[in-house]
Amino acid sequence: MPDGPAIAVFDIPIDDVSLDQAVDRLEAGVTQGGGPQVVYFANAHTLELARRDPSYAAVLRRADTIYGDGVGVRLAVWWLHGVALQDNVNGTDLVPRWLAASSGHRVFLLGAEKDRVRKAADHVRTTFPHWQVVGAHHGFFTEERETMVLEAIDSAQPDVLLVGMGNPRQERFIDRHRDRLSVPLNLGVGALFDYWSGAQRRAPRVLRERGLEWGWRMVFHRGKLGRYTTGSARFLWGVARSRQAG
Fold first, then answer.
1. What SS3 state is found at 171?
2. Measured by CB atoms within 10 angstroms of the end CB, which terminus of the chain is less buried, N or C?
3. CA nearest 91: which of 37, 170, 162?
4. Closest to 109 (Cα-Cα) out of 187, 27, 198
């Protein structure tokens, strides 16, 4: 992928690009070769995990590209560097945008529950028929069955691997196996399959455009309430300390 400006939060480099530029970079990651490319999307929760776990921070830093996802990251970049990120480059918006713009490639979906990933795969086939879904597997496999999952991906020979197993598991999985799988482009996509399957609803566009999707999630995804309250407070405290230290 072409080089672009990166801005550090907790020593994690966030690439500052527009959504359109990010689409072009994903396409280049498949078509231009150069070995397996890894792309992650870091929100406040992701960065707080990295701040508290150096081994996870190292996993993130081995990625080729990390995009900033959400208002918390945008605030952190502004407070630490006085920079306004060009776009909220989250996987739930970027990946469908890229699938629609691309001429199509071979894609494998890994993650979520069995029924949800099946429905997500059907969504891709219906919405993006120029893409070829070469495999789909749920994310609730044991360590003993991991070899079987890897063999299924190997056999399918995808151009793109979408891994939706949540932080930090999806990034650790990609980092651990990127060289063995030799998939041109590997993305950690979080809850994308839940949205594609219809299991979860996204916030209305007006809230997303104003960076208020977190409020929608607090109301409609109460299982994550602690993440958006206590977790966010810890993240902002960490940003404040980082600013003072700088």
1. helix
2. C
3. 162
4. 187
CA distances from 99 to 28, 32, 74, 94, 214 (A): 13, 17, 25, 9, 25
18-22, 105-109, 124-128, 213-217, range with the lowest pLDDT: 213-217
70: left (phi over 0), alpha (psi -120 to 50) or beta: left
Partners of 14 in the β-ladder = 7
Residue 238 — very low, low, confident or very high, per pLDDT cuts 50/70/90?
confident
What stretches of the chain show up as alpha helix (H) in DSSP? 19-31, 44-52, 54-61, 71-81, 91-101, 114-127, 146-156, 169-181, 192-197, 205-209, 213-220, 225-245
Two structure tokens written together for 235:
């993240």
Is 216 a residue whose pLDDT tops 70? no
pTM above 0.90, yes or no: no
CA–CA distances in Å: residue 243 to residues 145, 153, 240? 44, 43, 5
Residue 195 makes CB contacts below 8 A (sequence gap 6+) with 92, 201, 202
Residues 34-43 have pLDDT tens digits of 889 999 999 9
Tokens at 65, concatenated: 């590209």
How far, CA to CA in Å, does 174 sit from each of 40, 81, 164? 10, 30, 11
Are 44 and 12 a contacting pair, CB within 8 Å? no
Condensed to tens digits (0 to 9), the pLDDT of residues 96-146 reads 999 999 999 999 999 999 999 999 999 999 999 999 999 999 999 998 999
Distance CA 182, CA 153 (A): 10
CA dihedral 87, 93, 95, 96 (to 10 degrees): -130
Token pair belonging to 178: 């990127």
